[in-house]
Each structure stands twice: as C-alpha cells, then as structure tokens.
Amino acid sequence: MRIVAIGGGPAALYFGILMKKADPSSEITILERNRLDDTFGFGVVFSDATQNNLAAADAETFNALAGEFFHWDDISVHYRGHVIRSGGHGFSGLSRQKLLANLAKRCKELGVCIEVGTDVKDPTVYGDADLVLGADGFNSTVRQRYAEHFQPTMDERPNRFVWLGTTRPFPAFTFYFKRDRHGLWRVHAYQYEPGHSTFIVEATEQTWRSAGLDRASEDETVAFCQTLFKEELEGHRLLKNRSLWRHFVTIKNASWSYGNVVLLGDAAHTAHFSVGSGTKLAIEDAIALAVALRRQRDVPSALAAYEAERRPAVESLQRAAQVSLQWFEDTERYMDLEPLQFAFNLLTRSLRITHDNLKVRDPQFVETIDKWYAEQAARQCHSPVPSPPPPPMFTPFRLRDLVLTNRVIVSPMCQYVAEDGMPNDWHLVHLGSRAIGGAGLVFSEMTDVSREGRISPGCTGMYRPEHVVAWKRIVDFVHTNSGAKIAMQLGHAGRKGSTQRMWQGMDEPLPSGNWPIISASPLPYHPHSQIPKEMTRADMDAVKHDFVRAAGMANEAGFDLLELHFAHGYLLASFISPLTNQRTDSYGGSLENRMRFPLEVFDAVRAAWPDHKPMSVRISAVDWAPGGLQPADSVEVARLLKAHDCDITDVSAGQTVADAKPQYGRQFQTPFADRIRHEVGIATMAVGNISSYQDVNTILAAGRADLCVLARAHLWDPYWTRHAAHEQGYPLPWPDPYATLNQYRPRPA
Questions:
Q1: CA–CA separation, 626 vs 612, rounded Å?
Q2: How many beta carbons lie within 10 A of that of residue 2, not counting itself?
Q3: Cα separation of 74 and 170, whole Å?
C-alpha cells in the first residue's frame, strides 16, 4: 500500500510507525513543510489512561517516550490567596520537540520516509496514492481543498490566550486566577521536563484590550506577563515560541474522509487545551485508523469503519472541551465562591470528573468538600451539623419556612389520566410512591387553573371545589407517610391547549371536541393547529383571577410550595418569548414589556399565597430557535422574578416552538441554572438529563444549583433516592410499615 501523509505532526508520525509495523512492505511518505524541531508550543500532556492506550498500541515506541515523561498526580488551584490541592489525577508532561524527535527516529528505523521542506499546496497531486492523510493541522490545506466534501465548521471563541514557556518547574498541574486593574487573568501551567514548564495565559477580550495587549509585540507580551506574574514565577523567566495572542477555534467536520483522503488530528477536530492535549486526539486517531486498515480489506471500508468507531469518542471529548472552555470564558462568574467550592467547581467543570469519581481519586478532598457543604446547609437551615457529613444531595435546604430534608426533587410530569381536571387514584399512587421513595419534594403535574387552560382532556386542574378535596387526599398521604414535601405547579396551556393525550399525539389538536384557546398572539403551534385568540385586557384579568383562585385552593389543600409555569410555550411563556409574542401594545416588544403580564400574575398570586410559604417559577432559559430567547435573556427574566419576591427559579429550556433544535446531552440544561444562580443571586433548580446520584452530588457541591429535579429517572425508579442513599452508605430511614428494610441488604446482581 502506498500512503502519503501531508503534515509531519504526531498523528502522521505515529500512524506511520503503526502501519509500517503492521505491513513492512507498505510505502509510507510523510511530507512536512517545517523542520520537525521547529514546532509551535512547549509541552504536551497525556493522562494515565492515554498512556495506557499508547503502550497497548506499540510498547517499543511508548517505552522510548516514557523515559522523557514528567509525571504528576496533583492539581493545584491558586485562588484569592488560597492554594487548594487535589491528588490522584495522573498526568505526564512531555516536550513537544522530544515527542516529535522520538517518533521521527522510530519512523526512520522502520523505513518510513520523512521529507522535510515539502510545502504541499495542492493535495490532489498525490491522488494516485492508495491513501492520503490530511494531518496538516489547524490550517489544513487538505481540509480546505476538499471542503465541499468535509463540510468543516469553525467556532472562534471570545477569550484570548497566549502560549508561553517558563524555566520554573511546577510540581502539579497549576491554575492561577489573578486580578489586576484590567481584569481577571487565568493561567494553565504544567511541567513537561526538568526545568521547563508550559505557561498559558488566558483573559477575556475586554481585559486583554484594557491591558493594551492588542497592540503588543511578542516581546512586549512576554514582558507584560513576566511583570504580572512576577510573584508566581518565583524569579524564573518566561520563554516565547511564536507566542502571539490567539482565539481558540473549535473545528468540526461533517465527514472525515472523501475517497482515499482522510483527516486526522487538528485538521479534523480540535478540543480546548483545558481538557488535554490535541496531541492526544491526534495520536489516538492514528491508532484507530491503523486498526481499521488492518481489519478491513479495502480503503473505503476502512475509512468508514474508522470514522464510525472514532467519531463518538472524539465528539464526547469535544463536548467536554466545550463545557470546559465555557467555564474559563465565564470564570468571572465564580469569583465570589468560597475557595474550596471554587476548586471543586473547577475540577468538575467538564462533567468528566464527578463527585464520586473525585472521591476515588482523592477521598480526603471530597470528605472536606462534603463537610464544608453540610456546614453551609446547616447554617442555612438553622440545624446542627451532622457527623459524619452526608453526601451533598442529603443535606437540607430552606425556602422561607419550608425545610426540605434533601435536595432531590420529583419533576412535574403530566399523566393525562384525569377527568375534567380531577386527580384520582393514579395520581395518589404516582406521587405517593415517589414521596415514600425518599425524594425531598414532589411536584404535581402542571395543574391547570381553568377548564379551558388544560393541555388535554386528561390534565389535572384546580378550578372546581371538588379538586381541593381530591388534591388534599394526596397531600395528606404524602405528609403522613413520608418525610417529603409536596408542591403544586399551576399553569395555563395557552396555544398548546385543546390537544391529544401524550401517547395519542403530543401537541396534536383534538380530532373533535376542541375548546377555544388563547395566547399572547394569534399564532398556531403547528401550521395545522388551532389558531388561538389574541388576549385582550379582559382575558388577562380573567386568567389572573383564575391563577389567584387556584392558588387559594392549593393552599387550602395543604401544598407546601407553589410554582407558576412560565415555560415551554404555555400561556404565560407565550408572552415572554419574542417567537410567540408579536403584540404591538404595552405587552409586546421589549423583554420588560413581554414580562408585564406574567409578572402581574405572579404578583397577584404571591399576594394571595401565604407569606411563610415559598414560590417558584419554571422558565425556559433558551428557545433553541432563531430569534428566540437566549440564555442572557433568561438572566434578565430571573432578575425580574427576584425583584418580585420569587424564592427560586426552576430552570428548564425549549418547547416554545415546534421547529426548535434543542442541544441535548448530559445535564444539558444545568449550565442555565448555574448562570442564573451566580449572575442573579437567586436560588435555582437544575433539570434536564440528570440521572445519576453522582450528577446530583456534583451539581450541588459545585454550586451550579441548589436543588436537582429528576423526571424520567423517577418514572423508571420511584425509589431512586433511597437506592442512591443505599449505594452511598447513607442511612435513610424507611417508613414504619417498611421498618424491616432498615436491616435489609440486597444482594448484588
């Protein structure tokens, strides 16, 4: 096989080694424009797991590299005069020059041809090769030449960073967060060989410009940073190597191969330096491609198999990198956190390290954060500090006079089995079983304030006197038989009303028996949906009256907390989003105007709801549709709610318009709750694909939310909270009828 690699970086060199070993008869040529020792940057980083992959792929090459590694286990966070350390992380640094030199030496030993000084302008010249590798990095000529087939996207991030070196040795992966008169500076530093470390400085565009670095030369940048970090450098100097301020760019490609051409490394994908080295991705690409070529008989099949296997791992790391880089873009948001929580937040930022995972790496650190978190909870609830401290999810939380025994919440989940709004035995068992299951708070489904406000004929309501009696039966059961509290979520379906039950056709209009619907503007949800009436002032007064009446009935039934539904495109949400509010009166236009009616309703309900009982509001933080609400808008929505005496926001997203394109993923809505909590200073509930107790403990301990709301996890397992307690060794007492379970220990499967 004749193989031509364009670009002589780690991906091409490592691939050449593996393929020449697998097939010594193959003809492999690597074309590199620059000298191999003329490389950008200083050191690269490999985790212990990555090193294991390298050792398994080619032990001889790995052993040659391992002799050059500088290994460390600790991460050190320098923040507000404190140094917080965490161990057990397992990384090794390596000089990029030594990496390339070792790989090139191994290539030559095996008979791989390396041509230095060849600047490939047109990769089609090598089209007659069996395989062409586009391993030519970030500014890939190969990717550019075949762009119509690879369909690349490039996302330039707002922060600025500069890659420097230093003669100061760092015994740990070190983060500095330092303020000066210009703003906040972040440093990522790690040692890669005796006497040399990488020293990356990062700042927002505003801070960078304020310091005059937009006009600075390379030498002036070094001088500025050396002065700024004089204390941290401890007398050592900074080093430069094309040390120019850059924006990080996230590169993705719809396809990695075309015909006999394939992209590897930064040509195919980039991941922010805060989650590890792009070199790691490049070398693991080479390993996966070499394996695919050994397994498949022809190149097209091998390239298809390579991408099918490799892409999920790359995209997973890119998602983690995206979350991580956003954390560093928004670090100013977290600068009021206590040092211990700040460090925990930093360590768990990418979602790849959780509370449970960190407990394995550094049990003493997690014990310290658990103790600190329990102390904060005890102070907030005016209760004693338990010893030993519980996991964060089992600490109490207080809202006005309401104290929750833990922070696990059963989400409002429509059941669609009521008749004329009347809850029945299904709702008793549904909510009662989850209360017995150990959750701190259970929510009713969205309960409608009028018959016309229902989503479907099967939705519950609070508009008839008989509803109070039925709901009180459920509330009393929860209070009598569990330690849980119970909340009612009140809403009005608006333009999403008069539709079929979920399993018959979600958001689809009823085939018959429709009732009139209303909304902020006369816009149907689907093109074939019923057109709602645009609300008049009289309609607003009637709806406000319905909410106030329902709130009084909810209090009569004994609910502990009341939530208003301002999300998911229902009536009150239809005023908030510009996609559903096209009014030209004082209730349309600016966000302040669009919030007028929802806030009128909130104020009226707050006045009717007992002062000692808390109120929450569910909001959609983003519409995920062009022209819709953005996360910054939701911050302002939450700010207005706080000003109107809302106690906590329940932060969801989307479902405003039918053609929205949500960005799903693990904990995909938690960042919105995180942002609102820190920028507004209001308590938040996080919701959305939170499924493990590790997720819950991590979100809470990091300060991303105050409560965690789980839906499908509780449908799957009503006793989810008790099972989480058992797995963590936390003693959560059972109700008296189940007291024998206090001594029961289920056998492992």
A1: 41
A2: 13
A3: 10
527 half-sphere exposure, CB direction, 13 A CA radius? 1
Domain 398-712, CATH homologous superfamily name and number: Aldolase class I (3.20.20.70)
Give me 697's structure tokens. 């403990």
- pTM (2 d.p.): 0.93
Residue 747 has pLDDT above 90, yes or no: no
Per-domain residue ranges of the chain: 2-329, 398-712
Please state the φ and ψ torsions of residue 569, each to the nearest 5 degrees.
80, 10
Least confident of 220-224, 249-253, 597-601, 665-669: 665-669
Task: Find, among 18, 24, 7, the residue nearest to 293 by Cα.
Answer: 18
Report which of 325, 38, 41 is spatially closest to residue 164, judged by C-alpha positions.
41
Smallest CA-to-CA distance from 441 within 666, 682, 710, 702 is with: 710
b/e string for 54-83 if b means 16 or more Cβ within 10 A? Answer: beebbeebbebbbebbbebbbbbbbbeeee
CA 7 to CA 32: how far, in whole Å?
5
Q: Which long-range contacts (CB under 8 A, 24 or more apart) does 299-308 make?
A: 299/130, 299/131, 299/260, 300/259, 300/260, 303/256, 303/257, 303/260, 303/262, 304/257, 306/256, 306/257, 306/262, 307/255, 307/256, 307/257
Calculate what percentage of the chain has a pLDDT beyond 90: 89
3 state DSSP class of 645 = coil
3-state helix, strand, coil in the chain (%, to 5): 40, 20, 35
Name the architecture of domain 2-329: 3-Layer(bba) Sandwich (3.50)
- In whole angstroms, what is the distance from residue 685 CA to residue 705 CA? 6
Q: Indicate if 126 belongs to the active site.
A: no
CA angle (230 as vertex; 229, 231 as ends), nearest 5: 90
Enter the tokens of residue 246.
């850059």
pLDDT for position 38: 67
Give the number of residues written for the chain.
749
Residue with tokens 């301020």: 245
For residues 65 and 589, what is the distance between their CA atoms, to the nearest angstrom?
A: 62
For 534-558, the three-class secondary structure string (H helix, E strand, C coil) is ECCHHHHHHHHHHHHHHHHHHHHHC
What is d(CA 189, CA 173) in angstroms, rounded to the nearest whole number? 6
Please write the tens of the pLDDT for every residue from 126-175: 989 999 999 999 999 999 999 999 999 999 999 999 999 999 999 899 99
The whole-number pLDDT of residue 663 equals 82
Write down the catalytic residue from 416, 570, 587, 693: 570
Structure confidence by residue, pLDDT tens digits, 421-434: 999 999 999 999 99
